[in-house]
Design goal:
Helix content: 25-40%
Strand order of the largest sheet: 1-2-3
Largest sheet: 3 strands, parallel
Structural class: alpha/beta
Shape: globular
Bound molecules: glutamic acid
Number of strands: 12
Number of helices: 9
Radius of gyration: 20 Å
């Protein structure tokens, strides 16, 4: 008989980028990530994705952590305000080691396309153009003394994986066209590399995040395999859409936690999120804890969730 201690717990994570206050979409995916882990008796981890110094602020990092706790979403291990552990900005050596491992296998080349560098700087979002037309793989540009970005030779591969919410996925990676930057020319490691190294090294077994990152998953699975790791299982949350069809995001300046905390108690806001996520029939106040018992992904819609006008 398997003893409880023999069963490895599920390890999930919050992985916010501290470039603004949490917005409604972040809150929904954070609540679902927490419920997914807590309903399976798992461990929750907090990783601060503050890789890009130009877009990260310690002020926002502290507020994000505090806002999650205010909502009743806690974690067992990870970053704490004022700390450096589990902060990507303090894990550069780990990313450097991963780059070395890939270089040793001949999987990395120099890219001197400045537009590609810019686009690879952050997690991609729908509508953001992918860098195309880079020929550095086959026709390296002359070294003018300016540091190059490091790009991965993507293997010719079809990646099959199963999303916990959206089902079976097949992504074809095309060598050349789908090669992606793993370190920018300014030395900042790219999101794809950092998140893959971190999920592997931090023992994350379950990634729950918004659907706008679903297209990154095949690249992360590929990187982890090339680095000798085992990818976690992935589960993406439906996107929220504003009535007129635009995406809610902190980039678009939609309502953030700052405004929500003035308008709602934690229970009232959780009630709103629970209704949006299909977990409750009404938006009656509820605690995150109370949602654990009958949490099921089956209740969560697969199509984008329309945010009612009175919320935005
Ligand atoms: N840090 C990313 C974001 O806030 C999330 C990365 C991930 O979940 O893989 O958009």
């Amino acid at each position: 008989m398997k003893m409880r201690s023999d069963v490895s717990p599920i390890v999930g994570r919050f992985a916010p980028s501290p470039s603004g206050r949490l917005h409604l979409g972040n809150l929904l995916s954070s609540l679902l990530a927490w419920l997914d882990v807590r309903s399976q008796g798992g461990v929750m981890l907090f990783r601060l994705e503050d890789l890009d110094p130009a877009r990260s602020s310690p002020e926002y990092a502290g507020r994000m952590a505090e806002d999650l706790l205010w909502l009743g979403l806690d974690w067992d291990i990870g970053w704490r305000p004022g700390g450096t552990a589990f902060a990507q900005s303090h894990r550069t050596e780990r990313y450097a080691a991963a780059l070395k491992t890939l270089e040793a296998q001949g999987l990395v080349y120099d890219c001197r396309c400045s537009r590609a560098e810019r686009l690879a700087a952050s997690a991609p979002h729908p509508g953001e153009e992918r860098p195309r037309g880079c020929t550095c793989r086959t026709h390296p540009k002359p070294d003018t003394g300016r540091p190059a970005a490091k790009k991965l030779y993507v293997p010719n591969e079809t990646v099959h994986w199963t999303d916990g919410h959206f089902g079976d996925q097949t992504d074809v990676l095309c060598p050349g066209e789908d090669d992606f930057i793993i370190r920018r020319s300014d030395g900042v490691y790219a999101y794809q590399l950092a998140v893959s190294v971190d999920d592997m090294e931090m023992g994350v077994t379950r990634v729950v995040r918004a659907q706008d990152l679903i297209s990154s998953t095949a690249r992360q699975i590929t990187l982890m395999r090339l680095l000798g790791g085992t990818p976690p299982s992935y589960c993406h949350c439906p996107l929220l859409v504003a009535p007129e069809g635009r995406k809610l995001s902190k980039r678009a300046g939609d309502l953030s936690m700052e405004a929500f905390r003035e308008r709602f108690t934690p229970e009232a806001l959780t009630g709103v999120l629970a209704k949006l996520a299909g977990l409750r029939e009404t938006a009656a106040p509820v605690t995150a804890q109370e949602l654990i018992a009958d949490f099921s992904w089956k209740k969560v819609p697969a199509e984008p969730i329309l945010v009612p006008n009175n919320l935005i």
